[in-house]
Design goal:
This protein is of the alpha/beta class. It folds into 2 domains: 261 residues, Rossmann fold; 147 residues, 3-Layer(aba) Sandwich (Rossmann fold), CATH 3.40.50.2300. The protein is built from 15 helices and 16 strands. The strands form 3 sheets. It has a 7-stranded mixed β-sheet with strand order 2-3-1-4-5-6-14, sandwiched between helices. Strands 8-7-9-10-11-15-16 form a 7-stranded mixed β-sheet, sandwiched between helices. A hairpin with a 2-residue loop joins β2 and β3. α5 runs parallel beside α6, α8 crosses α9 and α14 packs across α15. The protein is globular. The two termini are 33 Å apart.
Length: 439
């Protein structure tokens, strides 16, 4: 991928992973040990001999990342009731009943490893995982060790690929993913920065975690090619409560733009302190936070015109390959059924099941894990998240979505709503708002 330095990224993420491994957070060795001792399944073998396909699903339904999974129940209930699932998947001339087993990672990597191992040991045919490296990486590692096909999403591809120890061009045997990465973040944010007329100094706020290491190691190089200068506030631990020193540095450096990748609670604390202490960048572009309506409530008017990336919305003109419904249908159905505002993860979770259905029905025996994994690595299709192509890279096992730039503005149906203000990376999505300064 242009602008991404693989060895540098690997060095950063490996240090982060080693720190987590010392406390058992990632549990890579646990998965490998289980497989070696015969506790897991033999890699790639058929362990399910029934005429039922079992799909496992892991996400952070509770804990600090629970906002990512707020729409999971709706999507999975909808998938279960879809005719293609109720009537069974057809593969190799046979029809298979479909069972979906849900596991909660509790926003904890240890727990993610544990429940993934439970799924592997139970003989599932495929595992799906969503939202943040703390979920997708340990789940993928357990599946790779156990020889079970796995698809992940809502994780920057570099954090999933390099963060798991891969080298450029190498491929995992059983694990794949779709989302986007730092090149797309830059391609989403820079066009909005260009329209602001600033001094091109970007205040950057990166925590001392896997996502923060990825951005700190690579994002400055990407934006410098567009003429922007990075002003790093310094690595900080998740859960920091006083950002005065960082804010002082940004003010002293006259940073007129702002970019970050913190946990939502940390950003809320920072942004309130920034307002109190007079740091008011002309445009704030954020990653990992303010993705969902629940993140916005705590900031209220302070969220006005903050920009972020958007990979799925009711405005995306795509349809499900599994149910035929449109992105707007999915969002409207969620709002009607729950009384809650739509959120981006709806489309991603739905797409995981589209992908599972495509791979499981393309083989003669859906219990043949090696055959299913091979399908996942060469899959090309278009669904509710748009076109996805695992043959195009940027690395083996990775498919890329193209995000658009959105801003939070006063809404009509809800207090705050996302409006598409830049579609430089994805012209399929129409603009429905005007880019305005945050301050």
């Amino acid at each position: 991928m242009p602008g991404i330095e693989g060895p540098l990224f690997q060095s950063l993420t490996r240090r982060a992973l080693l720190r987590k491994l010392s406390t058992g957070a990632i549990a890579l060795s646990a998965g490998s040990l289980a497989a070696a001792c015969g506790l897991g399944n033999v890699k790639g073998t058929t362990t399910n001999t029934t005429k039922k396909i079992v799909i496992g699903y892991v996400s952070p339904q509770t804990g600090e990342a629970a906002g990512f999974a707020a729409g999971d129940n709706y999507v999975i209930n909808q998938i279960r009731s879809a005719a293609a699932v109720k009537n069974g998947f057809k593969a190799g001339g046979k029809t298979y009943d479909v069972e979906i087993v849900i596991k909660d990672s509790q926003s904890n990597p240890n727990r993610a490893s544990q429940v993934a191992q439970e799924l592997v040991n139970s003989g599932v045919d495929i595992v799906l995982a969503a939202s943040t490296p703390e979920v997708t990486n340990p789940v993928s590692d357990i599946c790779e060790a156990g020889g079970v096909p796995c698809v992940s999403t809502i994780v920057p591809w570099e954090a999933w690929y390099f963060g798991r120890g891969a080298k450029p061009g190498s491929a995992f045997n059983f694990t794949t993913m779709f989302f986007f990465g730092l090149h797309e973040f830059a391609g989403c944010f820079i066009p909005m920065w260009d329209r602001m007329g600033t001094n091109k100094i970007v205040a950057e706020m990166y925590p001392n975690d896997a996502d923060g290491g990825a951005f700190r190691g690579n994002f400055p190089g990407l934006i410098s090619k567009a003429g922007y200068t990075s002003l790093d506030g310094g690595a900080y631990p998740d859960g920091t409560t006083d950002y005065s020193a960082m804010i002082g540095k940004f003010k002293a450096g006259n940073a007129q733009l702002y970019s970050n990748v913190p946990l939502p609670p940390d950003f809320n604390v920072f942004w309130k302190q920034a307002a109190q202490q007079g740091f008011k960048p002309k445009l704030a572009t954020v990653a990992k936070v303010l993705l969902f309506p629940a993140d916005v409530a705590a900031l209220d008017t302070l969220v006005n015109n903050i920009a972020t990336d958007c990979w799925w919305s009711p405005f995306h003109p795509y349809k499900s390959s599994l149910t035929g419904e449109s992105a707007k249908d999915l969002a409207d159905g969620f709002e009607k059924a729950t009384g809650q505002q739509w959120l981006q993860s709806l489309g991603s979770v739905h797409s995981l099941f589209e992908i599972a259905q495509k791979a499981l029905t393309a083989v003669d025996d859906p219990h043949d894990r090696k055959a299913v994994a091979a399908q996942l690595k060469t899959l090309k299709y278009s669904g509710i998240s748009g076109p996805l192509d695992w043959t195009a890279g940027p690395m083996p096992g990775v498919a890329i979505q193209q995000p658009v730039g959105v801003q939070w503005k006063k809404g009509t149906k809800y207090p705050w709503s996302m409006y598409v203000v830049d579609n430089s990376l994805n012209k399929d999505v129409p603009l429905n708002g005007t880019l305005e300064p945050t301050n």
